[in-house]
Amino acid sequence: MECSIADLIMSVRIFIGTSANGEDAEAEMVYEHSLRKNSSESLDITWMRQTNDISSPWGGWDSSRWSTPFSGFRWAIPEVCNFEGRAIYTDVDMINLKDINILWNIDLKDNYVAARYGTRFGGHEFCVMVINCALMKGEIAPIERMKNIPEMHHRYINAFSGSDVVQELDPRWNSLDGDDLKLEDMWQLHYSRMSTQPWRPVWYTGEKLEHPRQELVKFWFDYRDKLLEEGHKPNTINNNVTYNFLGK
User: Fold this and answer.
1) In which region does residue 83 sit, left (phi positive, over 0), alpha (psi from -120 to 50) or beta (all else)?
2) Could you read off the pLDDT of 66-80 as tens digits, one per residue?
3) What gap in Å lies between CA 142 and CA 140, rounded to an integer?
4) What distance in Å separates the CA atoms of residue 220 and residue 132, rounded to the nearest whole number?
5) What whole-number distance in Å separates Cα of residue 178 and Cα of residue 180?
6) 109-158: pLDDT as tens digits
């Protein structure tokens, strides 16, 4: 699906990386509900999930060096948007706690992207990004080339992390497993460690551990259970994709 400048003006454009076969369906339900509940504007959400359709922007990727089923998709967003306007990218493993329209309208100045500073990659954390699609033209490879280079995701992380073209984002928009914040002080809660995610996605093949903040686990389950009680149902999409990625 392509987006035009008109589309971007009319609604907040969000791309969310998720799994192909429904493994994160409950996480998708919780996250989407929280986004729409807190947003003051309409949202145009694109779920980026692997597909067997190689003509799709999300099909035909060599993902053998990815940690998740969607790791490299974020770098395809500017081209999908025809290098026009801006877009938000996030992982699926989140709960939104503040109007995402505020993030959408931050002043990017002349920066390529906005992301919080962290410690995992020696610089910035690109699991929540506001992307200046126009400025990314010429800075990233065409999608059809990226599909064939499994290391491309890590190359871009290394290239942009700590760079002066990345605008500092308030870390509350990407609160990594809560950081050291109280829940009421978070803007976007990110269950970032795959080993401790409450819903335990079956594509994760690494060691499973207990989350260090059990009140955040309870918060996720309480949110999910309330939605189910109200009649909400998880997405039933299954693209029947055979995965080829690290999964940890």
Assistant:
1) left
2) 999 999 999 999 999
3) 7
4) 31
5) 6
6) 999 999 999 877 678 999 999 999 999 999 999 999 999 999 999 999 99
